[in-house]
Automatic annotation (TrEMBL), chains A, B:
UniProt-recorded name of the protein: 3-methylmercaptopropionyl-CoA dehydrogenase
The organism of origin for this protein: Marinobacter lutaoensis
Membership in a protein family: Belongs to the acyl-CoA dehydrogenase family.
Catalytic activity: 3-(methylsulfanyl)propanoyl-CoA + oxidized [electron-transfer flavoprotein] + H(+) = 3-(methylsulfanyl)acryloyl-CoA + reduced [electron-transfer flavoprotein]
Pfam families from the UniProt entry: Acyl-CoA_dh_1, Acyl-CoA_dh_C, Acyl-CoA_dh_M, Acyl-CoA_dh_N
Top-rank lineage group of the source organism: Bacteria
């Protein structure tokens, strides 16, 4: 069975060499504890937990799946014990405020942890991951009593949380939510309705589960402006910090899914369940979306994780499996055939995976610094700081989530492809990565929704192109400085060209959309993918710049590592980045090509 | 449960309007029976069988899968009855020679049948599909006695066949085959060895199974020149046309796969099994490859089928599911929200599926005419004709198989994506299409192997670019004629440009490969995909040309159909064809980008 090895060398390269996290942490109020030694110790310990505890449960969890008996969900064998270790390690509270039992470390460290956990065992990582969503919502919108009652056990990991948004008739379009909340004399509410696709809706990992639920008050306006947010605990807290009476919320069924089978995806029935309002009435959606950017960065990890995992396993296979001879002559003359890693096309697949995994990780680490600043803004009650970094993150988030989850799927497919027919067989694990990853472009907003969020909201509506101007200015300034180094010059030139083109494309859409409102929807997907390729190119140049510098200094035992960075950057610029141009061409093609065909003319059976 | 509706309108458009099959059949010796009325009746009857019998078994077959008990494989419920109807309908012998009990119709009709069967229920269609491979091999290389004994019951469908090539240590690299064949005093052989990934290796559909097996004679030279071909029946024929003694070949286990679960993929153990040599000793691989091109066109169907099926289901869903409002204003003001078919990005996905399904089908129908001529050459013993059409088909086959199966996967993924989160749930069937389709780029030669076959063998080695020159000349001549029609002119101009570019790219690789032998492998994948996009563009122009002409004539009740053809052609040229340019750029990038990194520098764990 293949295993996961945390890419600590690459993580430390990004942390210490590319993004100078030591200085960044030193600048944060909450960064005092996050000294380089502490950070390294935490990452090493997290790597050990992921490699030794979570990774071995990845394939068995898929095989066994979750079970629903008498309304109670059982997770696969081993999950309870792994979760117990997770709680004992204090991992759930790593980046949570000390006031509620957390360790108060920077938010970015939570993301580094999540990447390792999600790569070793994505379905497992969803249980604590969903809890984080609930914790964030409570932290920002709960009152003091609610925080004391719920946030403390959630931070300890004794309790878990969920986010209950989707209903059978609506996912993206939450204005259609029907679940009702009737006020009671004691100030509580009774919730009635059905939620679906609720990850971690029920399970046996914790003694209680706190559902954060979108529902309508009796007098609520129609649509999105009439939705409120409620806490609905599985067991009502007894007021002493322990669990009391069972609430009228239950798992009606488990979805049978393509993948992430070890993650319980529940239909949740609320049958007059007791709930408590969080935040102001009818402003539930706004409250819900406060932390959407961070949640979506969490999902972007599911682009990087599968690329990394599938690459590790495909690389090991490509070094062992022997087939045919290399076109340029025998590489292993004593063997019956050459290892397939010597074939150019196998290398194309492996390097694509590597470029996606490492390029994507760099994008995450880049965004994680911004997340630290935004969270600090929240902690300090500094609305300006929150707004500033929320804007920066808000621009990057749909790119990270939309683009990286699409490329993660490509990487997972290529990993299967390296295995040939063996990739299709369950025991090798490659097809599981593909199945598990397939959800990533669907949940937390499909790729289409990310594309509209990016182009329609963040770029056009909110900033009239300003977000692109600001980001490309940063890119261009950085690229310009690298023009003097002959190794980096071709990359820098390409990036300068793309920075200009990105603005031009934005402008053309901005102007075109005035006359043709469909243009935004018609261009959005290509714009998203284009933005992703350029952003990843920027992060590859940043990595290449550091690698070139380290090689110049010489005498480093990591010389091979830096050479590999330069080679992978070159591969990215030469072989993947050209795709940006096909997106540039497609996005400007007339909307007519998408909109002219009447729905009834889309198919003719006879 | 979604159902399959055979796209008869589109099939008849290609048959009668684009490729003039009536005239083509009239020109064939075996085409006498294939009058337009007969062809239409056969297609309609096949459509009925696929829609009513095969399609309802598609999802249940996936759920139930195959079972192995005491060495005997049981197919899912309903498969036996469906197969009985298939045999009764005489479908297996549709294109088989009358001399052996077939109907003697043109080979192309077999492909049209296979497309419908494969779209309605790919896993089911593999059982008779594999038999066709065995039948073709026997027809071309068996002696008269072998043909009488085996070919007749195979043609009737009473018996089934398999192709036993792959072994645990080798798939592509068949020179590594180890299975041994010991000659016996009676002229038979005893075969010993293990074969894996044997589709239809055992099942309960027929009274006998005829394995065509690659094995080595005791004195055989090493490598590919020491492999011979054998018939190994599950039950030895009794000489009276019935089955006799059980042979020492058995299914050791069933592979647990990502998809095509209703198709039995067997490990086959040959324990001194009785076999009979077919064709000359040590020339087994050549015999095996004779019909490789037609077999691979059969697999290319698995690119078109899933695109069609996934499109049908996604289209139905997109018309029903309501979410948000169209950007250009409400389309269904009386409804709670607009159907998602009104969103540009959903249309992008649907039209991509449609363009792939219909463009791919046109590529199949185009190649099927060539297959008819090649088969006629075999029937007439006309080696020149065989060689001529084998060359033409040999060039197109890797493009069809490699390119269409890659695009079929994209189409299947987009169908899931249209369903949003619901696409991930098993009951909707969309994820099954993705899982079933995933095998298509792996078996019958991976995409990488198709790419090497195309660029390395067919284009460079065998014709020094001549194959591209010949095909692009045809394209350019056709395109030039369409320049006067303003609706077709932009497409024609683009195709003319691409025809020139395709030759130029070929020439640059031809010259470059003299100095750098890795260039062929490094460029192959991009060359294949580029070739596919240009070929599909040619077939879209051919369809658009007919549609424009029909619209000019006017008064046709199919006006909507022809307008949809033009609109889909426009979509293809504007939104999908630009990808060819990113492949053109990537394929000429230096081989260094793929080859420079030492295998041991591909990953650094710490």
């Amino acid at each position: 069975m293949p295993v996961y090895k945390a890419p600590l060398r690459d993580m430390k390269f990004l942390l210490n060499e590319v993004f100078d996290y030591p200085a960044h942490y030193a600048s944060l109020a909450c960064g005092e504890q996050a000294t380089p030694d502490i950070v390294e110790a935490i990452l090493n310990e997290c790597a050990r937990f992921c490699e030794e505890v979570l990774s071995p449960l990845y394939q068995p969890g898929d095989r066994e799946g979750c079970r629903l008996d008498n309304g109670e969900v059982t997770t696969p064998r081993g999950f309870r014990d792994a979760y117990r270790q997770y709680v004992q390690g204090g991992w759930q509270g790593l980046s949570a405020p000390e006031a509620y039992g957390g360790q108060g470390l920077p938010a970015s460290m939570g993301l580094f942890k999540q990447e390792m956990m999600g790569t070793a065992n994505w379905p497992f990582s969803m249980y604590p991951g969903l809890s984080l969503g609930a914790m964030n919502t409570l932290y920002l919108h709960g009152d003091d009593a609610q925080k004391q009652i719920y946030l403390v056990p959630l931070t300890e990991g004794r309790w878990a949380g969920t986010m209950c948004l989707t209903e059978p008739q609506c996912g993206t379009d939450l204005g259609q939510v029907k679940t009702r909340a009737e006020p009671q004399a004691d100030g509580s509410y009774r919730l009635t309705g059905t939620k679906m696709f609720i990850s971690s809706g029920d399970h046996d990992l914790t003694e209680n589960i706190i559902h954060i639920v979108l529902a309508r008050l009796p007098d609520a306006p129609k649509g999105t402006k009439g939705i409120s947010l409620f806490i609905v605990p599985k067991y009502l807290p007894d007021g002493q910090g322990a669990v009391g009476e069972r609430n009228a919320v239950s798992c009606g069924s488990l979805e049978e899914k393509m993948g992430i089978k070890a993650s319980a995806t529940c239909v949740m029935n609320f049958d007059g369940a007791t709930g408590f309002l969080i935040g102001p009435p009818n402003q539930g959606l706004e409250c819900m979306f406060t932390f959407m950017n961070t949640a979506r960065i969490g999902t972007a990890i599911q682009g990087v994780g599968p690329a990394e995992l599938s690459y590790q396993w495909a690389l090991a296979y490509a070094r062992e499996r022997r087939s045919m001879r290399a076109l340029s002559g025998k590489k292993e003359p004593d063997q019956v055939a050459d290892a397939i890693i010597h074939h150019a096309d196998v290398r194309r697949m492996l390097l694509t995976q590597k470029a996606i995994a490492e390029g994507g990780r760099a994008m995450l680490y880049y965004a994680a610094r911004l997340a630290d600043h935004m969270v600090e803004g929240h902690t300090q009650g500094d609305a300006d700081k929150v707004a500033k970094y929320d804007d920066k993150l808000g621009f990057l988030t749909p790119i990270l989530k939309g683009f990286l989850t699409e490329l993660g799927q490509e990487a997972a497919h290529l990993g299967m492809q390296v295995f040939g027919g063996h990739g299709y067989i369950r025991e090798h694990g490659m097809e599981q990565i593909v199945r598990d990853t397939r959800i990533a472009t669907l949940y937390e907003g499909t790729t289409g929704i990310q594309a509209l969020d990016l182009l329609g909201r963040k770029v056009l509506l909110m900033t009239r192109g300003g977000a692109v101007r600001e980001f490309t200015l940063k890119i261009a300034n950085f690229a310009r400085k690298q023009l003097t180094d002959p190794r980096l010059r071709p990359f820098a030139l390409e990036l300068l060209k793309l920075s200009g083109q990105w603005n031009l494309l934005t402008l053309r859409i901005l102007l075109g959309a005035r006359k043709d409102r469909d243009l935004v929807g018609a261009a959005a997907h290509d714009f998203l993918m284009y933005s992703g390729y350029v952003t990843m190119a920027y992060l590859w140049l940043r990595q290449a710049t550091v690698a070139a510098d380290r090689l110049d200094r010489g005498g480093d035992e990591s010389e091979g590592f830096y050479r590999a960075k330069l080679a992978t950057a070159e591969f990215y610029f030469e072989r993947l980045l050209p795709r940006a141009q096909s997106h540039a061409t497609s996005m400007l093609s007339p909307t007519r090509t998408l909109m002219q065909l009447a729905p009834e003319h889309m198919a003719f059976t006879d």
